[in-house]
Predict the 3D structure of the following.
Amino acid sequence: MADNAAAGGRGGFRGGFGGRGRGGRPRGRGRGRGRGRGKEAEKEWVPVTKLGRLVRDGKIRSLEEIYLFSLPIKEYEIIDFFIGSQLKDEVLKIMPVQKQTRAGQRTRFKAFVAIGDSNGHIGLGVKCSKEVATAIRGAIILAKLSVVPVRRGYWGNKIGKPHTVPCKVTGKCGSVLVRLIPAPRGTGIVSAPVPKKLLNMAGIEDCYTSARGSTGTLGNFAKATYTAIGKTYAYLTPDLWKEMPLATAPYHEYADYLAKNHRVVGTGLQ
Amino acid sequence: MARQFEPYVLLGFADERVVERTRSAVNFTTNKIGGTPDWHQDKDLPLTKCKLCGTNQTLVVQIFAPLDGSEYLRTLYFFACPQPQCWNRPESWMCIRQQTLSQTKPEKLSGAAQTATISSTSWADDADNWGTDSDDDEKSVPSIDQENGNVIFQIPQNAPEGSDTDDESSSVEELSDPNANSGGAEGAFAIEFNSKCSVATAEIETGDESDIVSIDTPTQPRQMAEIFSYAPLPPHAHHEFACSFISVAEEKFDTQRGAKITEHELSLLQAYQQSELGGGDVQIDVRKMKVEVAGGAETTGEQYEQDLPSHGDAYAHRFLSRLKQNSGQVIRYGLGADPMLLKPLSKQKMRCTHCGSDLVFEMQLMPPLLNSLSLLHDAERKDVLDFGTVIVFTCPSACWDQRGFQEERLVVQAE
């Protein structure tokens, strides 16, 4: 325990702060922590945002509560906490992209990763990086941050579980326009490979699709499909016409957090 | 995306709690979270009040940060108002800098004389110390032979031995405690707990603050939803956070990690290789852990893309990604470095109110600090403070006036 006789010259120190050039001798007599580097730190999640703290403390019971109040999810561990075990990710494409610099061309890798639990959640992440591994890792994180809920409905009779999109929805990105059309049970997904993967991960079993534009640009194609799937919950269908009482915030105490968010969007007290 | 960062960015991590046993190690040179401020030379400065609601502010962190090349012992104290309606507002925070000239060198000689006289009460303890058993800790323990045969061991503290070349070595060890030299065992104990300065800091309890002003009403909340926020604290009480130490390490980025592929990624790549979408492009060499991707940009028409997360806040994303590389950090200290921002700072130059020189970034408080804060008298209360980051800009020349303390400029950024 009398570890550093030299460091014994400082009062109460486990290393010290100081001006530049000062020895911030990286010693800690604390609990032998891994300092956030290495594998052991990755298992324990130290929340950094307010929402993260609420989630970790168990104040928020499900991911749907976060979606209900449109709270921005800034930490991907929140998604991991709720549905991490059911999430499956898949690389849609890795391609090199080049940037012209004075010293020639610089190649980076762009990775598209789609993530979903095949039961109502889908996310898509795109990341460019110098190394393939970093690109994939970054894309997985961005995909988790972009997870949205998927609304499923029926084509005809409301028997059994919802299996298709509730209505015709369309998403656009760049020149690509993707249209999702409800299909009867048993049809399967009738589409090109890229939207097919996404729709599978979203948990949509039957769907007709129609695409227009330069679908060869995989990025735009995937993003257009993702947007279309995300719009399923934005669409007001007749069965939602009934007036529902405004749900109070799960815990009134956290309403101030909502106030901050709505301020960002610009609603506030108008 | 790896930038070149300033070489000396130090990170503080929350360490163990301060318990009775280690309380004596806490003085104005300790880095700590919570507790009561340990002022220099025990000058008790009046408690600061929140400018918004008038509640007493609570000490959040105390950082001992002497400047390079200066003899001053400099400590920064961060105070915040714990009332929920004052969170995230810059007016409810205050940073106070206090410094004293390290006077231990000249004091040592006079102090020795003092301790010599005072130790006459404990001469019996030292009488049997013939100087053999206290030499184990240091190379040689300077001792003073008194005329009556007492041998008084000065716990080595200062530059004369040359073991510590840092300025800090000349700082802490004020042997103002008359019993500080009572035996080598005490010295070893002190070295072990790094407490040469064994001045017991008094815990300031509410008894002293009986004449505190009573606040009539908190300030008007700005938005309706804030009425439903957390329960406000009683304004007249003295609130204190539970005290813990801070350990310090250098900021390091694991650049090696980027090159290595984890198993999960490898399996993803292998699945990709077999899929219809990307079969031919990827060549994976498992042994060398290398991946080669064919295909040119001309065929696909894809361009380099900035990665923007779907919540749209690029600043927050960058802040959080960088924070997660050294997760758990509560303090980021980098004099002259660039602060990590949650929102862009205003362009106007900040100037010291006292001497007019340009302020420079010194350190910032990071969100994981909130996980370590809890009220001392109300441990059940989960949320005691909130901020995104608190950045302090200090005067580079550490200017000084007669008041005994100086306020530093703070920027509080909400999440």
The longest strand of chain A covers residues 88-101. Strands of chain A lie at 88-101, 104-116, 121-129, 148-149, 169-173, 176-182, 189-190, 207-212.
